[in-house]
Specification:
The chain is α/β, with parallel strands linked by helices. Helix content is 38%, strand content 18%.
């Protein structure tokens, strides 16, 4: 009987798939200890969105989390994290010095294995990071990323494409210790999985360790795993209750049951696993489990959305009051994938796809390109599996002012550590390797969220249930401070020819405050130009105040929705006479932002 290895992904991918990765360290560490006591010795312990979410939503250091995880799991446990090739744990491409620092920092903080993938299956994007991972003394697991194409599409994502990708990796000479076939959306047809693994096994020989990673989102995860095992896979990724199934990975006990009566086994003590699951369930008893995380979502087969991204995106849409748009966005995502060159729907591509679909729904088709999607179709993330739609490439080039690029993305990136060091010194923050990496990895065009975290300028946003009343727990929008989806903000409302200021506040001491606009205020705004939000979201930055002089084209406000930053530009030269939002406000489409005269 062949023993199939498994990795417990509950504490990384499970958290991402169920809670948008927003889980406080102190809440789950007892569950890690219980899992180790039950005999589990291989854990996914961080990386991916669990690196980003910890400082941005939990207000914690991701490196401190890794240290605590190592202590709880024990000195001999295998701890694996997820990296995205040249993106490592960021959504944007990282320069060579940051890629090297990533491997060194994760090694320093207790990680033993790194699973490394490229959403475009461009082996060039894996070469440098592979060498850095090996130089740091870590196990490098290289990936081929999988999904099902939307109906009517062909040219990639069949068994022949995956074997070609694997041959490219082998021929490149990049160093690796094991291979994983990664289907973040859980949509790859089980027969295609079988054919791919069967051919891969014949190609690499019997001694190479092969893994498969998928999700239960579309309801076929166990079928994929069984097909892969029968074709020669060595290891599978599994979650445990209460974060298994749904948008998470197939369940450990369920998969164990599927293998009964076959020549394969997971070799677990189910009674000990049940005990560990009880501890885990107790740890998360106060967390809000989004309904979409618990359900099978067959529509993702036609618009492949990863389990880890689905819930992260719906959580962000809840934050900004746009969850009602999700059905339209998921349909539009299929169109975005068709015309974008068939990069695999896995971070960061899944986020770029979703951002572009969101933009197409809220602002009109191809009227506003998400930065990541534009860079992808223009070649700045590497070579897409097939050529993107020519019209989309043309529009992206026109809007961004960038020409299509065919070179290596790493060749056009400036070193990141000197810039990060300068930022830390200017803000009188300790220049440690950890701080350098946090500042470098969270840099965006409009700011630096890593710097905000280190300066204490963050808001904890961990979604839990409201206090129980009469034996029932009603879900709250937030346990700590996630904003509600109501129209929180400042408004001017005209009733029967009279203007009134309306302030809608949140929380127990909030409510609605109304006062009539004074003659001075009325005079100030007479003839002024209203600048309104083009889409719903939250206010990331306000660059002006009343009295500020602006030029046409100046960035006056930056909005953020589904991790997409949208600058709002001044439509004219003038003076700011009214600022009607502040940083952190949740706003609706067409809501007044500022007035210029």
């Amino acid at each position: 009987m062949k023993k199939i290895e498994f990795m417990d992904t509950s504490f990384r991918d499970g958290f991402q798939s169920y809670f948008g990765a927003r889980v406080l360290t102190a809440d789950f560490i007892p569950a890690v200890e219980a899992a180790a006591a039950a005999g589990i010795s291989y854990f996914e312990a961080g990386g991916g969105a669990r690196f980003q979410s910890i400082p941005l939503y939990c207000g914690e250091s991701p490196f401190d989390m890794m240290d605590k995880f190592r202590k709880a799991a024990g000195p001999n446990a295998k701890l694996q994290t997820l990296a995205r090739g040249i993106n490592v744990v960021a959504l944007s491409q990282q320069p060579k010095d940051m890629i090297d620092l990533h491997a060194k920092m994760f090694k320093k903080h207790g990680i033993t294995h790194i699973r490394n993938f490229d959403a475009l299956n461009d082996y060039r994007n894996l070469e440098y990071s592979a060498q850095c991972i090996k130089n740091a003394g870590l196990h490098h697991q290289v990936c081929v990323t999988m999904m099902e194409l939307p109906p009517g599409c062909e040219g990639a994502h069949d068994a022949a494409f995956y074997i070609k990708t694997l041959k490219d990796i082998l021929n490149s000479g990049l160093p690796f210790d094991s291979i994983c076939f990664k289907d973040a959306s859980g949509t790859a047809n089980p027969q295609k999985v079988y054919e791919t693994v069967k051919q891969a096994r014949a190609l690499v020989g019997k001694d190479m360790v092969l893994w498969i990673h998928s999700h239960a989102t579309a309801g076929i995860g166990e079928s994929q795993y069984k097909a892969a095992i029968e074709a020669g896979i060595d290891g599978v990724c599994l979650c445990r209750k209460p974060v298994s199934g749904g948008t998470g990975q197939p369940d450990l006990l369920s998969m164990n049951h599927v293998l009964k009566g076959t020549q394969y086994t997971l070799d677990i003590d189910y009674k000990k696993i049940l005990e560990a699951n009880n501890v885990f369930t107790e740890c998360l008893k106060d967390y809000f489990f989004p309904p979409e995380a618990l359900a099978i979502s067959p529509e993702v087969i036609y618009s492949p959305m990863p389990g880890g991204a689905l819930t992260a995106n719906t959580m962000m849409m809840r934050d900004t009051g746009t969850l009602n748009l999700y059905p339209e966005v998921i349909v539009e995502m299929g169109e975005v994938i068709k015309r974008g060159g068939f990069g695999t729907s896995v971070t960061p591509m899944s986020q770029f796809y979703f951002q572009q679909a969101f933009s197409n729904v809220t602002q009109g088709k191809w009227k506003k390109f998400a930065d990541g999607y534009a860079d992808t179709v223009l070649g700045y993330f590497g070579k897409t599996p097939t050529e993107p739609d020519a019209e989309v490439v043309r529009l992206a080039s026109e809007q961004t002012g960038k020409k299509p690029f065919t070179g290596h993305p790493l060749d056009i990136l400036s070193p990141g550590i000197p810039e990060a060091k300068k930022i830390l010194e200017e803000n009188k923050l300790p220049v440690t390797d950890e701080n350098l990496f946090i500042v470098g990895a969270f840099k965006t065009k409009e700011g630096n969220k890593g710097l905000d975290f280190l300066k204490g300028n963050f808001k904890i946003s961990v979604v839990k249930n409201a206090a129980k009343k009469d034996g029932a727990a009603a879900p709250a929008p937030s346990a700590a401070s996630t904003k509600s989806s109501g129209g929180v903000g400042n408004y001017v409302v005209n009733v029967d020819g009279k203007n009134y200021k309306v302030v809608v506040a949140e929380g127990a001491s909030g409510g609605i405050q109304v006062s009539q606009v004074t003659p001075a205020e009325k005079k100030a705004v007479a003839g002024a130009v209203e600048v309104k939000a083009k889409l719903p979201g939250s206010v990331m930055k306000v660059n002006v105040s009343v009295g500020s002089k602006v030029k046409k084209g100046d960035t006056i406000v930056v909005l953020e929705a589904v991790k997409m930053e949208t600058p709002i530009y001044s439509p004219q030269d003038g003076e700011i006479v009214s600022v009607d939002v502040k940083k952190g406000d949740v706003i609706r489409a067409n809501q007044l932002l500022v007035m210029i005269k």
